[in-house]
Specification:
Chain lengths: ~300, ~375
């Protein structure tokens, strides 16, 4: 979630060279730099270096020369299908977790604080349990003879038992449950900040419930919706465990393909290209977040003038 | 005030040092076991790689624990897969001294020059033991026969049961979901498709890929899950997610003992062999040889087969295996007619092509 924090103000760039020296000579600054060194070294060694070597690997052919054919491979044939499936499943997941998360978060804001705290606990605590265990829990619940289907059959629901596992539905149920705490937490924080007085004011001026919701409430929580949607989309893009365990072969996602390329085909270059594409997609998501923000801010400024 | 400042600074310096050492230690975990580490005689631990699961448990009980007791050598077992092992060996410092794996994979290891030449003079148990010649390769020593078979729920088909791959494929006569092995787990199961299509068992190789994949298309709609770990068929069958599945023979035994209505079909079994190889850069080669030698003693081979239904490669082992146990071993002489041996040469030559085609087939 740190990636979503606004970037630090560009103070350093603005400072003149003299300012630089003065800043560096300050005891507090030296102290700060000393503090930062381990983290910087840590990030350089364990984060920046691996990413760059992955990038280089994805541009190397078998003889070590430069090539783009790993990217061409990744963006054609079944690899492209898998990329599109990944995007589709991620989009479905973020849409559903937004809707469910919105309803849940809205409901929690209306509860008394003690109940709100309890419900929040129920939403968040499963997240502390290993994703593997939770996924197996879903597999037990959703199987042909799992609790859900047994109940539906007992209730004589037409068409039961349904196939809820080893298909796209199963994957989306699984990934949505993983993403839900994120969306609920983000939306809850935004919704808590909404001034109830504005809703009351809208009502006092004759707006109906629907109008109040769409013209007053929704614009106020929109930034939270955008944040939550893009965050769950990004997290889902690289998700491995749930799709691998709850999906069938047609729900292969990019992370599984990377795993297969490395573990089965011993093909590190192709896997690197896929990894870089995944990273670029993540950046694209973050960029769109910034764009939406600046556009809405521009609109706000125009409205204020 | 000044004192606290100094204290804090030295504290921070100390902290930095701690961080640096732990970072170095983290980078250095690989080197700590390297062959030239000089620890030499001091290091008594033998690290064995196997595939874990029910097989790993049985192996620990029947072979590794008695070996530890007899020799005093400590054994640690880890379960990296093929690519991880290869990457470690190529780095020059594998975390394991001895690999327990399928013989097909050892051919691939040898092609990558990742395993050491076996010095057969150091293996007393091999001399005059009549182990089949094809299991004593320059870089690997065979130790057991295993295989893939049909596993099914006895309560699934209304009293009927599958007797062959043709029955397994016949989802009209035996309706229900199927499970097949994923290519991530082992070589694909093309032979079963060909047998179901009527190819005689002794004329399978070279495999007719187009015909096999055409036959696989027929059953694709009934395949609910392609299992990628040896334990999964048992889970799928046990939870009634599938009614019949391919399975590595032996993996259902615990469930059957617990009373689950599961059974195997031997007809059309694909037999493979597994064995030992020593990776280049292994830290404890002496102990590795000792364990190989130990595992090929007739009585150890027999003991393992009684705990886990993998057949021995040392014929003398059958002297101490009870007949009713021998009847449950795929590789036992009386069962050889029911199955066929996977053709190692063919698979080594075609694995890459078939794997790629399978991956594309499964996703469309």
């Amino acid at each position: 979630m740190a990636v979503l924090a606004p970037p630090p103000e560009p103070v350093v760039a603005a400072a003149a060279t003299g300012g630089w020296r003065r800043r560096l000579s300050g005891r507090r600054t030296r102290f700060g730099l000393l503090n930062a060194t381990p983290v910087v070294v840590y990030l350089l060694v364990l984060f920046v270096y691996p990413i760059f070597s992955t990038l280089l690997l994805s541009l190397k052919d078998e003889d070590g020369g430069f090539t783009l054919h790993w990217y061409a491979d990744a963006l054609s044939g079944t690899s492209l299908d898998i990329l599109l499936i990944t995007l589709r499943i991620s989009a479905e997941t973020s849409a559903i977790s937004l809707v469910v998360g919105f309803l849940l978060a809205y409901w929690i804001t209306r509860l008394r604080p003690i109940w709100a705290g309890l419900v929040m606990l129920v939403v968040v605590v499963p997240h502390f349990i290993s994703a593997l265990v939770r996924t197996y829990g879903w597999i037990i619940l959703l199987g042909d003879h799992g609790l859900v289907n047994e109940t539906l059959v007992a209730l004589h629901v037409p068409g039961a038992p349904f196939q809820l596992l080893y298909n796209e539905l199963g994957v989306v149920i699984g990934t949505t449950s993983v993403m839900l705490p994120y969306t609920v937490l983000l939306l809850y924080a935004v919704m808590r900040g909404v001034d109830r007085g504005l809703i009351a004011a809208a009502a006092s001026m004759g707006a109906g419930r629907l109008v109040t919701f769409f013209r007053v409430y929704l614009p106020l929580v929109a930034p939270g919706l955008v944040n939550a949607g893009i965050l769950s989309f990004i997290l889902c893009l690289g998700y491995y465990l749930t799709p691998a365990l709850m999906g069938g072969p047609k729900q292969t996602m990019v992370a599984s393909l990377i795993d297969e390329q490395v573990m089965k085909n011993n093909q590190w270059n192709g896997a690197s290209a896929l990894g870089v594409i995944l990273l670029l997609l993540t950046f694209a998501g973050l960029l769109s977040l910034r764009l939406v923000k600046s556009v809405s801010e521009a609109a706000k400024n125009r409205g204020g003038a | 005030m000044k004192d606290t400042w100094i204290d804090r600074r030295s504290f921070l310096r100390g902290l930095g040092a701690v961080a640096a050492t732990s970072a170095l230690a983290a980078c250095g975990t690989g080197t700590s076991r390297s062959a030239g580490g000089g620890a030499g005689t001091g290091s008594k631990t033998l690290v064995v790689r196997n595939s874990g699961g029910a097989y790993g448990d049985a192996n620990m009980k029947a072979v590794l624990e008695p070996f530890m007791k007899e020799t005093g050598i400590e054994i640690k077992v880890i379960n990296p897969n093929y690519a991880q092992m290869l990457a470690q060996i190529k780095q020059g410092r594998p975390q394991f001294d001895l690999i327990d794996n399928s013989m097909i994979d050892f051919v691939k290891f040898a092609q990558e020059d990742a395993t050491q030449q076996i010095d057969y003079d150091r293996l007393k148990s091999v001399k005059n033991a009549d182990i089949p010649k094809n299991l004593l390769t320059p870089t690997a020593v065979g130790k057991n026969y295993w295989g893939s078979v049909i596993g099914y729920r006895t309560d699934a088909f209304g009293g009927k049961k599958p007797n062959s791959w043709a029955d397994f494929w016949d989802t009209a006569a035996l309706p229900g979901s199927r499970g097949l092995q994923h290519v991530d787990a082992d070589i694909p199961e093309l032979e079963f498709a060909l047998l179901a299509d009527g190819v005689p068992m002794d004329q399978l190789y070279p495999l007719d890929l187009d015909r096999a994949f055409r036959k696989l298309d027929e059953i694709k709609g009934s395949v609910k899950k392609y299992w990628d770990t040896g334990a999964l068929p048992g889970v799928l069958l046990g939870r009634r997610e599938v009614d019949a599945s391919t399975v590595w023979y032996g993996r259902l035994n615990d469930l059957i003992k617990q009373g689950q209505p599961l059974a195997y079909v031997f007809q059309g079994a694909r037999r493979q062999s597994n064995g030992w190889a020593i990776p280049r850069g292994a830290a404890n080669v002496d102990a590795a040889y000792q364990l190989i030698d130990y595992s090929l003693r007739p009585e150890v081979q027999a003991h393992f087969s009684e705990i886990y239904p993998f057949a021995p490669v040392v014929p003398a082992a059958y002297k101490s295996i009870k007949d009713e146990v021998a009847a449950t071993l795929l590789g036992a002489p009386q069962n050889l007619e029911t199955g066929f041996d996977a053709n190692v040469e063919w698979w080594v030559g075609n694995d890459e092509v078939v794997t790629k085609r399978w991956q594309e087939w499964a996703r469309v």
